[in-house]
Amino acid sequence: MKADLKALMTNPVVKNAISNINPGLVERRAFRPPRCEVFKSPYTSLRQTGKYRFEIDPEAKRQLPRIIDNRVQVIAGEDELEDWQVERLTRSRTIGVVFSGGPAPGGHNVIAGIFDAAKQANPDSRLVGFLMGPDGIIENEHVEITAELVDAYRNLGGFTMIRTGRTKIDTQEKMALSRQTCRDLGLDALVVVGGDDSNTNAAFLAQEMMDDGIQVIGVPKTIDGDVQVRDADGNVLCAISFGFHSAARAFSQDISNLCTDCSSDRKYWHICKVMGRSASHLALEVALQTHANMTLIGEDLADYVDQRRIQAASGAATTDFTAFGITLRNLSRVICDAIVRRAAVGKNCGVLVIPEGVLEFINEIQVFIIKLSTILADYNNKHDRDFHTRFPRLEDKLEYLRRLAKDIANGSAPGVWNARDDELFNDIPAFFQEGLLTERDSHGNFQFSLVETDKVLMGLVKDYLNILQEKGLYKIGIERAYYEKVMLKGGLDPATYAKVMFQNADAEHLLMRNSVISRKTLRQVLVKGGLIAEEDAIPGPVVKIFNKSIPNFKTQTHFYGYDGRGSHPTRFDCNYTYNLGLTVFSLIANGATGQMAAIRNLEKDFSEWEPMGIPIAPLMHLEERKGKLALVLEKSLVDINSVAFQVVKACRENWLNASQGEDNYRRPAPIRFDGQSEDERPLTLELNALEEQEED
């Protein structure tokens, strides 16, 4: 048997099945993204432009004086340069690169672009990769990036080549260790690939390392899509961070499959939570890609106005400020309305997309998050043990909050937590209390991914649906043809019974009268309508139709996050990141520092892409982190006035499809980087480009 097994394992079919290499992987590695036009020239130069204006935060000017006056630098292709310029461009360099924060599809191509450009300029140039994120810089853990290593990861997802981490270089000690590492390795430049916090790090590193002659360049990365850059006049310089398109397409593919499942057996509401802690860009793109029945956009919810409260307050000659901005109760009612309307036409199923950070846009939750974050940060700053170590159980945490509220009330301690807060907080389910009190991340941010947002919302939804069902307002619509078939088969006249049983006897989908919520009330209606006597049994066909009208609300919950950030990059991200790498090298070779590599016109055809360097320092502003104000890059939220959002808003009724007929689901193609079916760019970018064309 052992001999047979040995022979079996050498069989070509078996070897193919157990190999790590497959034809698709070989094809991906072999793909070479096209280069932007400027990179086809023998040389490049930087053309500084004053066309773009930024509003400078005084604190950024104070803390980053050496790079605050940086300007946008557009990369130009050059056929000829003076000798000294050629010598500067082609000299041997040692460049360090680090991934910072969560993975995003395309990161390997950033490294490939830097590597190819550096080696083309001078084969003696070296690229060093720091392992496990910024910790690798602090601890001098690195690897030499070779041609073999680069070729093994071209066009592949993840940050596997050198891995990543979330450490911030945010103390003088860490900064000193980082500078020493860079000096020891003889680095000419350091490239930081990351999101808003990581590019903030890049700015401070550039400031600190200027005396060492070490240039620092940032690269915009985050699947959330919240690293976007506009100048003070609204000109788009960086339309989206890399990785967004790939993650959105990966999520959309899976959610589209759920749409297909939903339309196949009409059994479940699929509740799909997608990543997006502070912004709903991913949810918006998924809505466009899939046409899910309902998609919540946090930024839209924040703009919600409860007209009922406004009118009530107006009648009392007062202003109800709680009418502005949606509450959890409001939101659960909105979702319930959609569910009830679809059920009325026989569709007790659907697909609901929720952004991970939707709770941040809910009035009372936002207040709780702000207050609790302040309390946790204040406790950690004052004590040797952190809050979660000192109070490990939920009961301990709640007791601390109760004592705090009392101390604040009697004036023995300052603070933000009052008796009303404590009362409202104790009305929240325990699992949600635990979620709101969960430990903040390393940057002091509330970790929405650890909160069961879907469970919070759907718990309220189910409670209200039960109330609506008891009131006879939540019912399954019965298709007329099916009803007539069942009744005729049982020897009953459909028309006669319809007038008594249904509230809409002439409709295509028949709804039981609101008063019919049980067999008892059904009997009463039939007796009152003269169709049966008190002592008669309810006819079997009628019972069958009644049972069909009773809704059984079932949900399946899904979270889309880590799978998407580990996806292979789309062709858009393959091309985008490779050219970002080329941009990085051009900025370094031409002497730039404190800049973010970017490509303008991503929303347009590839031939119009414009590589450039954007100054990081002017983009920074003060924001609360860990209870203190800190300089960071501002996150970009969904603009509810944008074309992309307005299109989704206009299609809401059509995609909800609370009417007869098939749902209007869209089936996005699988992620690939060849063929005509591959998306050229994110749909949100294509739609928002229409607004710019109109302005032009």
Structure explained in plain terms:
A nine-stranded mixed beta sheet has the order 1-2-17-16-7-6-3-4-5, with helices on both faces. The protein has a four-stranded parallel beta sheet with strand order 11-12-10-15, with helices on both faces. Strand 3, helix 6 and strand 4 (126-130) form a beta-alpha-beta unit. Helix content is 45%, strand content 13%. The longest helix has 22 residues, at 244-265. It is of the alpha/beta class and 696 residues long. The protein is built from 29 helices and 19 strands. The protein starts with a helix and ends with a helix. It has three domains: 34-74 and 92-242 and 569-633, Rossmann fold (3-Layer(aba) Sandwich), CATH 3.40.50.450; 247-356 and 555-564 and 641-695, Rossmann fold; 475-549, no CATH class.
Layout of SSEs?
Blueprint (H helix, E strand, L loop, with lengths): L1 H8 L2 H7 L4 H8 L12 E7 L8 H6 L8 E7 L4 H8 L3 E6 L7 H15 L4 E5 L3 H5 L3 E3 L2 H7 L18 H13 L4 E6 L1 H13 L6 E6 L8 E2 L5 E3 L5 H22 L3 E6 L6 H10 L3 E2 L2 H5 L4 H9 L12 H16 L6 E6 L7 H20 L4 H4 L3 H16 L9 H8 L3 H7 L16 H18 L7 E2 H10 L4 H8 L7 E2 L8 H10 L11 H10 L5 E6 L1 H4 L5 H19 L5 E6 L9 E6 L4 E6 L2 E6 L9 H14 L26 H13 L1
Parallel strand pairs: 3-4, 3-6, 6-7, 7-16, 10-12, 10-15, 11-12
Antiparallel strand pairs: 1-2, 2-17, 4-5, 8-9, 13-14, 16-17, 18-19
Helix pairs in contact: 6-8, 6-27, 11-12, 15-21, 18-19, 22-25, 28-29
Q: What would CATH call the class of the largest domain? A: Alpha Beta
Which of globular, elongated, flat, extended, rod-shaped describes the shape? globular
- How would you sum up the major sheet? 9 strands, mixed
- What CATH calls the topology of the largest domain is Rossmann fold
Q: What is the mean predicted local confidence, pLDDT?
A: 93
Structural class: alpha/beta
Order of neighbouring strands in the sheet with most strands: 1-2-17-16-7-6-3-4-5
Helical content (DSSP H or I, runs of 4+): 40-55%
CATH architecture of the largest domain: 3-Layer(aba) Sandwich
Strand content: 5-15%
Low-confidence stretches: none
**CA radius of gyration:** 30 Å
Tally the beta strands: 19
Oligomeric state of the chains present here: single chain
Domains, number: 3
Distance between the termini: 76 Å
